[in-house]
Design brief:
By secondary structure, this protein is of the alpha+beta class. It has 3 helices and 5 strands.
Length: 138
Amino acid sequence: MRSLASVAVGDTLGPVTLPVTRDTLVAYANASGDQNPIHQDEDFARSVGLPDVIAHGMWTMGAAGTVVAEWAGDAGRVVEYGTRFTKPVVVPVGGGEVVVEGTVKAVDAETGRVTVDVTATSEGQKVLGRCVAVVRLD
């Protein structure tokens, strides 16, 4: 488990590369109940102007959040997490990937809270904007 004493402003996490395949999207759709065809049907996705099927935004957010939770040592240490979706993650037949990185922006020794700015990209494009996690460390 990461300790508060081991963290300083400017510390980085990642980069962590997360693969995403069409099977990932089917599994997420089944787990979440989000069966929107833009996530599974290539022809449908293209018919509405997308380049191919795209990952669920909430999958992308969750995947980036998992990287932060692993860095913190436990998902229960993530006390705040928010983002804006800026671009879709395109998932071609062979699969794609999301690269997650973070930078510690603030450390509050009094509360034990650490603020991390998170960056998530796919194909060199930022897919999450204003992505910030606050973790509680001992």
